[in-house]
Amino acid sequence: MSDIAFDAPTIIRTKRDGGRLSDAAIDWVIEGFTDGRVADVQMAALLMAIFWRGLDHRELARWTAAMLASGARLDFTGLSSGGRPLMTVDKHSTGGVGDKTTLVLVPVVAACGAAVPKVSGRGLGHTGGTLDKLESIAGFTAEISTRQVRQQLCDIGAAIFAAGELAPADKLIYALRDITSTVDSLPLIASSVMSKKLAEGIGALVLDVKVGSGALLPESQCRELARTMVELGAAHGVPTRAVLTDMECPLGAAVGNALEVGEALEVLAGGGPADVVELTVQLAAEMLALSGVDGRDPAETLRDGTAMDLFRRLVGAQGGDLSIPLPIGAHTETVIAARSGTMGTIDAMAVGLTAWRLGAGRSRPGGAVQPGAGVRIHRRPGEPVAAGQPLFTLYTDTPERFTAALAELDGGFSVDDSAPAARPLILDRIGA
Ligand code: URA
C-alpha cells in the first residue's frame, strides 16, 4: 500500500481526537507496523489513543481482519487420526491470575477425542502466560513448525505452540501493550485474541472471559467483550462460545510459572484444587459440545490418568523433560496470620502484581521471566486460620524484590470473623 496515501502521525491524531479510522488506514497501519515502516513509538501512541477513544464496530472488525491478514493461516481440513477426521477446537482465556487451566484442559480434551491446536501467549501485565509456564519445564519448546503441529495432532491430539507466523501483528502489538499500560482495552483484547484464534483454522472456539478483580477489564465491560469476540468468531464462520468465569480470587493455590505447572500436574494426577478441576471439566465439556465430539467424560480422564499420559506425551514431543525437577525461587518470604479467624477474600490483582514484582512477569519487551518466582497460597477463602500460621509463601531468585512484592500483597487479603460469601465459578455463557 502506498506510503503517500497515509502517514502514522495523521492516523494517530485522527484517533486521538476521537475520529474514525478508514478501512484503508487500518490496513496500512497494521501492515506498516508488521513490516517495520511504522515505528514502535508510533504504534504505542496509536494504542494509547485507541485505549482512550476505542474502536467502533466496523473499525474493530477491520482491525481484527488486518491483524489476521498479517500472517499465515493454518488449515487442518483433511487431517485424520485412526481413520476418523480430526475435529479441531480451542479455548482462549482473557488472562487471569493462577490460571493454569490450559495445561490441564488441552490434554483432557484431546483424551476425550477432539484435536487441540493451541496457540498460546506469554504473560501480559499482571496475568501469567501459558508459554512462560511451560518453558519452566526443562527443554520444552513452543517454537515448533506447522508440520510438527499437524503431526502431533494426528499422533497425540494436541500441540501447544507460539503463534510464530500466525497474526505476527498481534505478537508485536502484544509486546508493546505489555509495557505501555494499554493492555486493558476492550478492542485491543478482542482483536488480539480473535486474530490469533481465527488464524489457527479451528472448527470451534470456547472463550474463557475472566470477571473480577484479577481480570483485565472491569466487570461492566466483560460481558461486552464476550459478545464482541463471539460476534467476530461468527463473522469468520467459527462457532464461538464465551464462558464468563470468576477471577475475583486467584485460581488454585499457586501463582507463578513453575509453581503453576506443579499444580497442573497435581490436577492431572487426579488431585489439586477443586476450582481448577471444576473450571477444567466445565470448559472441556463446552469444547466437546461445541465441536460435536461425543467423546469421554472429561472428569474421567483426570481420574484414570489418560489426560496425564497425554500431557507427558505432548511435553515429550516438544522436547520437555518432566523427570527434571521444576525450578523454584531460591529465596522465600512467608506472610503469617496476625490473628485467628477465617480467610477472607484474596484479591487476584494484588496476588498477580505480587508475583509480577517477584519476577514471574516482565517489565520490558522480550525480558526474561524467573521460572521459579511466584506465590503459594496456604489458606484459601473460607478456610480457618490460626494466628501465626503461614498464609502465603513468596518465591524469587532476587530477594531485593521482596519489599515491593510484599507492598502489593498488603491489603489484598484479610482474616475475618466469618467466611466471605461464596461466588460461583461459572457466571454465564454467551454465544453459540
Ligand atoms: N489474551 C490475548 O491473547 N490477548 C489479550 O489482549 C488478552 C488476553
Automatic annotation (TrEMBL):
GO terms for cellular component: cytosol. Residues 342-416 form the Pyrimidine nucleoside phosphorylase C-terminal domain. InterPro entries: Glycosyl_Trfase_fam3, Glycosyl_Trfase_fam3_N_dom, Glycosyl_Trfase_fam3_N_dom_sf, Nuc_phospho_transferase, PYNP-like_C_sf, PYNP_C, Pyrmidine_PPas_bac/euk, Pyrmidine_PPase_CS. GO terms for biological process: pyrimidine nucleobase metabolic process; pyrimidine nucleoside metabolic process. It comes from Mycobacterium sherrisii. It comes from the Bacteria. Homodimer. It holds the Pfam family Glycos_trans_3N. SMART domains: PYNP_C (SM00941). One of its GO terms (molecular function) is 1,4-alpha-oligoglucan phosphorylase activity. SUPFAM superfamilies: Nucleoside phosphorylase/phosphoribosyltransferase catalytic domain, Nucleoside phosphorylase/phosphoribosyltransferase N-terminal domain, Pyrimidine nucleoside phosphorylase C-terminal domain. This is Thymidine phosphorylase. Belongs to the thymidine/pyrimidine-nucleoside phosphorylase family. Keywords: Glycosyltransferase, Transferase.
